[in-house]
Every structure is written in C-alpha cells, then in structure tokens.
C-alpha cells in the first residue's frame, strides 16, 4: 500500500514534510510505503542529511511546485509536473492508494475533481473536520469549506457520507447524525436547513437525531455534524483559535490539546474515487505524520470503495 505525500506543499516545505514522513515511517503498519513527491535532488539530499536509511520512503520526481497563492485551475493546467498534479496522477493510476498535501487547498480540491473525480451519485464531495469529544474520541463535521452554499439534498448526502466515515474510520458503530442549526426545534433555521431536516428525518441510511446547536459540538449528541461549508469553516477556525489562545496563556488540558491541528494532521476530502487528505499550510512534522497515519486508516478501511458501494457506483 502506497501513500503519496506532496513534499513541496506547505509553509515549511520540504523540510517539515520529509521529517513528518520519517516520523510516520516508524509507525506505519507493514506493507506500507510513503512516496515523497517533489524535486528529487533536494528530497534525496534531505533524507541523507536527516540520516534516513530505511526502505519505507521512496522519492518520486516532480519538477514543478504550485505555490500557496496561485489560482488552482490555472496552476494545475500550467504545471502538469507539479507535485500536486503528479500526486493525483498516481492516485488515479492506482500507483498510490492515498494522496496527502499541506499545499494549496484549492489545487487539492480542483485536482481531486479533475483527476479521480467524484464518486458517481455523490452530488458534492466535501471536506470533513474532526471534532474532539469531551467523552473521548472524535466526531466529524462536514462540510468545512469545499461548498459554501449547499442545497438540502447535498446536506442530506453529507449525513450519509459522514456516517460512512464515522463508522469505518472513527469506529463508531451506529453514528448519530445532527444538523447544525440555531435551535433544536424542527421548524428552526433557514429555508434550506428546514428542507434538509425533512430529508434527513426520513433517510433510512442514517441515524438522524434532529437539529443540534453550537453548544452541542463537543458533547455526545451527534457523532456526525452536518452543515454547509461556510458555517463549518467558521466553526473550525474558531475551534483552532481556542487552542491558540489557551497556548498563549500557557494553559494546557488534554481535551483542548486535541483542538491543535497537529493532533489529527488534516481534513479528508470525502466522496471522491480515492483517498485524499488536506493538511494545514503551517503543518509541522508531527502534523504531517498524523496526516499520513489518517490516510493509512482511510486506505485500510477501504473508505472510497464504501462510498461507491453506498451510491451503487460499483
């Protein structure tokens, strides 16, 4: 099983990615390889410099880099030998079983849609954010940024996609699905969330428990939290700021430490024909390592195939 990593993505590339890959190599299960994609001479030199002598990490040459500020579609068209384009090419060809990057988020999303594409029957692939729970473990919130506006049927499908991820990757047997809203009562919310509620309520494929409020994010009311990408992204960034503020004040707690983006490493793109994880632009080696380990779990649980099975797109 091969996990490809964009070694040139992120603010601290390539050093943080190479170190992160080395950390992950020590923890990966047997029969896994990490493919470092980027400028071969630089990556080979860094591995040598850091004293890597193992056989888990292999280097794949890519001569171009998509920078953080570049326009995603233009960059992918104009830079076919970029580390992101090569990574998705390998994922599509089956030469890699997962692809991770802390680089340009837009390029990762566009790359996913133009290469491996959405699973047939999936209306809109989404980005999932992992939510720490007070009782331990994690839930998932989706979408957290891929789709700012969502129709009711898209929100309904997020409930299904999130349930599959929660069941197989987070190992929650019968995940509870909640719709993020401004009140628990059924009639609350926008025209969109009201319509989504009616659809989720009658969906036989999920365990829908109704509307939830912002204060329910971290309790056990719902394992899968459904919202549009606009709402989800605001919630995600706010949660990250809580960790930063506590850190600044030198206050530490095991629960709030899970708010640190390093703890989970990245956000999965869900609903595509393959496994892809987007990491934070400021990812450290630890974050990169955890992103790779999350990708391993997605590969091991056959996640993208389960989406196909669910939609009948075999």
Automatic annotation (TrEMBL):
GO terms for cellular component: cytoplasm
Metabolic or biological pathway, per its Swiss-Prot or TrEMBL entry: Lipid metabolism; phospholipid metabolism
Broadest EC class assigned to this enzyme: transferase
Keywords linked to the UniProt accession: Acyltransferase, Cytoplasm, Lipid biosynthesis, Lipid metabolism, Phospholipid biosynthesis, Phospholipid metabolism, Transferase
Record keyword Mitochondrion present: no
Main location: cytoplasm
HAMAP family the record matches: PlsX
Family annotation (PANTHER family): FATTY ACID/PHOSPHOLIPID SYNTHESIS PROTEIN PLSX, PHOSPHATE ACYLTRANSFERASE
Function comment: Catalyzes the reversible formation of acyl-phosphate (acyl-PO(4)) from acyl-[acyl-carrier-protein] (acyl-ACP). This enzyme utilizes acyl-ACP as fatty acyl donor, but not acyl-CoA.
Protein name listed in UniProt: Phosphate acyltransferase
Organism this protein belongs to: Pontibacter ramchanderi
Top-level taxonomy: Bacteria, Pseudomonadati, Bacteroidota, Cytophagia, Cytophagales
